[in-house]
Amino acid sequence: MQGDKAEHVHEVFSKIARRYDVMNSVLSFQQHRLWRHFAMRQLPLRRDSKILDVAAGTGAWTFSMAKRLGPKGHVTGLDFTEAMLEVAQERLATCPERDRIDFIHGNAMDLPFEDNQFDIATVGFALRNMPSVEKCLQEMLRVVKPGGVVVSLELSKPDSALFRRLYYFYFYKVLPRIGSLVVKDDAPYSWLPESLIDFPNRHQLEQMFVDLGMTKVKSYPLTMGIAALHIGYKALPGQETM
Ligand SMILES: C[S@@+](CC[C@H](N)C(=O)[O-])C[C@H]1O[C@@H](n2cnc3c(N)ncnc32)[C@H](O)[C@@H]1O
């Protein structure tokens, strides 16, 4: 089952890689830019931070984090879909911060890094796609240093029942149609709503961060809970978790 999901996700992103960024903006009415901007403001980013962007895709978040870094900072963008990384690499060639960025092929379920390497590990709009949300967060937590931070920006489920109904109509009925018209294939954008069905809501995901032993865990609903930002810190030795 886990392998099946990963294969399916890989196939979906291989198909839409070239249209991913445009579709993101169209389908979210540009909201994703505001969400990323809000997320950036909550990150404890320093000029010399070492950041891992898990499931970086075409690099949207990787590039914006790199802009905030000084010459000693670095962002590694990791993804398992070659077609998404190809787009990221093309952009990298003309990016002024290119010497602070690397893209690598790898699997979020088994990150190819030693423990305690990064100050910050981010995952943007990708936890939903993972065969195991918990395993992905565990891996991110493993590779950040004690005191380092794990961050997820992801679609979520609105708390208000009335708004949820309206939103789900758009998300489950309208969005897949627009998506399939643009990419001329039903599969990729019928996957998008499917991927949210079994995904934990904001409160459940926050509890998952806590249960994994992170400290100072916080979550923020965005645009009435359509998306959510989650942040948790890796405990320092001897520090109580909460
Ligand atoms: C919706 S895109 C998000 C890309 C980017 N983070 C952003 O914010 O635009 C999801 C990405 O997750 C990647 N992905 C899904 N499962 C993965 C896994 N197990 N390991 C690495 N990448 C994965 C896909 O290849 C895809 O590029």
From TrEMBL:
Signal peptide positions on this chain: none
Keywords: Menaquinone biosynthesis, Methyltransferase, S-adenosyl-L-methionine, Transferase
Catalyzed reactions: a 2-demethylmenaquinol + S-adenosyl-L-methionine = a menaquinol + S-adenosyl-L-homocysteine + H(+)
GO MF, one annotated term: demethylmenaquinone methyltransferase activity
Binding site for S-adenosyl-L-methionine: T58, D79, N107, A108
Keyword field contains Methyltransferase: yes
Any GO BP annotation: menaquinone biosynthetic process
PROSITE patterns listed in its UniProt record: SAM_MT_UBIE (PS51608), UBIE_1 (PS01183), UBIE_2 (PS01184)
Pathway note: Quinol/quinone metabolism; menaquinone biosynthesis; menaquinol from 1,4-dihydroxy-2-naphthoate: step 2/2
Top-tier EC class: transferase
Record bears the keyword Lyase: no
InterPro entries xrefs: SAM-dependent_MTases_sf (IPR029063), UbiE/COQ5_MeTrFase (IPR004033), UbiE/COQ5_MeTrFase_CS (IPR023576)
The enzyme's E.C. designation: 2.1.1.163
Function, in words: Methyltransferase required for the conversion of demethylmenaquinol (DMKH2) to menaquinol (MKH2).
Annotated NCBIfam families: MenG_MenH_UbiE, PRK00216.1-4, PRK00216.1-5
Family in the record: Belongs to the class I-like SAM-binding methyltransferase superfamily. MenG/UbiE family.
UniProt-recorded name of the protein: Demethylmenaquinone methyltransferase
Organism: Alicyclobacillus acidoterrestris (strain ATCC 49025 / DSM 3922 / CIP 106132 / NCIMB 13137 / GD3B)
Gene it is expressed from: menG
